[in-house]
Amino acid sequence: MIAQERLAEQFEAHCRHLLAAAYRMLGSLSEAEDAVQEGWLRLCRAETEAIENLGGWLTRVVSRVCLDMLRSRKSRREEPLDTHPAETYPLTEDRGGPDPEREALMAESVGVALLVVLDRLKPAERVTFVLHDIFGMPFAEIAQVAGKSEAAVRKLASRARRRVTGTAPRDSADLAGMRRLVDAFIAAARAGDFDALIAMLDPDVTLRDDTDGGARITRGAEALARRICGRALAAQTAVVDGVIGAVAAPLGRLAYALKFDIRGGKIAAVERIADPARLAALSLDVPFVQAPSRYSALSRR
């Protein structure tokens, strides 16, 4: 019992980073927690004396679990993991059902735009991108996770990077400035700051909305500001079809996208896209991905 308690303490030291990586791979908090739980179960059954780097070992194991979950997502069983009571990790034993508020906070902290784009990658591409580009895991170790050669996972990472961060040349200064404007616009809409919204909008701005299959058009800065003022926009900045925009994705599931036409430092036109077919056809990328931590944080101790 004492040995298992000590093992649980060592496992707990890595849980935060394991959950962070698993959530980015899976885009679901409950599934990420299941993957980390499975990592604990496999640790309980492993020859722990032979594990030289516990953090690295756990990262590889949980990542392989995530990859398998992504590959079998359509046909996976919905019943909970079949675990032995003595092997259940104490901190997840009483987790209970889904927690929408916690899931929303997790999505917000990671970036709903990033989650939407990651969800469009193939399983091996997604796992490789998360492990290398976000957490800095060496390709040699990712190859062990993916069951591919190091050269193959390098190609996966390159392909995923192009899809996530885009390939079209852009003026970085212009993009940064437009992003700041869109971020401020979203913040003002959430806060209900009517005057701030007006200041960012061209007087003749138009909003075109395809909701319910129609083409509703709102004209003028005051009309648009009144329509969105105080709305809790679950949106984050992204590049949509090659132009600055935003995606709204409650719990990481794409609900609608916005495309902005910015002229002279003002928002001159907005297009809101909610039609499922149009959403599926959009080109989305997030060229401003920032890593939350490096692999050393995952593998230390």
Write the layout of secondary structure elements.
Layout: H1 2-26, H2 29-45, H3 54-71, H4 100-110, H5 112-118, H6 123-134, H7 139-146, H8 150-165, H9 172-191, H10 194-200, E1 201-209, E2 216-219, H11 221-228, E3 235-240, E4 243-248, E5 256-263, E6 266-273, H12 276-281, E7 284-285, H13 295-299
Parallel strand pairs: 1-6
Antiparallel strand pairs: 1-2, 3-4, 3-7, 4-5, 5-6
Descriptive report:
The protein is an alpha+beta fold and 301 residues long. Helix content is 53%, strand content 14%. It has 13 helices and 7 strands. The protein has helices spanning 2-26, 29-45, 54-71, 100-110, 112-118, 123-134, 139-146, 150-165, 172-191, 194-200, 221-228, 276-281, 295-299, and strands spanning 201-209, 216-219, 235-240, 243-248, 256-263, 266-273, 284-285. A 7-stranded mixed beta sheet has the order 2-1-6-5-4-3-7. Strand 5 (256-263) and strand 6 form a beta hairpin. Helix 3 crosses helix 7 (139-146). It is elongated. The two termini are 22 Å apart.
